[in-house]
Amino acid sequence: MSLEIHSHLVGVLVALGVLMAISATLYWMLHPPSTMAERAAREAQRDVQDLIGSVIVVYSEEIHSEHMMALAVRLAQRERAELLVAYIIEVPLTLPPDAVMEKEQRIALDVLATAEAIARQKSIEIRTEIVGARQVSQGVLDLARRYDAHLIVLGAYHEGKYAGAPLGRAIEMIAANAPCDVLIGVQGRRGRILKKPTVTKQPAPAEKSTN
Q: Is residue 42 part of a domain?
């Protein structure tokens, strides 16, 4: 009798062992170990998600970011990010730091209006700000720290319209000293992805006849 019970227990244990082995094999087949590439892709996706919500798009006299603005708007539309668009006015040393430079202010307002129009085409709301600084690069860096930015977006052109360094001295200084990631869009001569968007302006209202 005891021999039969012992044989029965051995059979049960063997059956359980086979069942566990089969279950482990099926689990491994359904959940294969991730490759290094897959782990890197997941980490990159998490990094991108961390960037969302603190993106600054920068304009200045020498930084033209219209094409990058369009790209940032697409990112905001997809990830529901909030965008800050800033125009940096470089204040010369001959003027006080808070000097009002009317001509530059008008240019900044026009540029920011265009940025708002680009965002409006995708139904994205943005914040805009005009910043005066002794140096464009310092103004951008101060702004990034003040808003705890995770990403600074800058535009540049391949044709080399800037004096000094190929991408402009200000862009180089921002990239070298930024407290966060910097995305610089270099527009190629035949590129299409970063092509400057066309903004349709509303026609001016017709004047009423005085007759």
A: no
Considering the chain, what percentage of its residues have pLDDT values greater than 70?
A: 60
Q: Is 122 contained in some domain?
A: yes
- DSSP assignment, residue 10? H
* pLDDT band, residue 39 (cuts 50/70/90): low
Predicted local confidence at residue 163, as pLDDT: 46
Domain that holds residue 68: 50-187
- Residue 135 sits in a domain whose CATH number is 3.40.50.620
- 3-state secondary structure (DSSP) of residue 88: strand
CA atoms lying within 13 Å on the CB side of residue 140: 30
**Cβ contact 152:182 at 8 Å:** yes
∠ Cα 47 49 52 (to 5°): 115
- Higher-pLDDT residue of 195, 85: 85
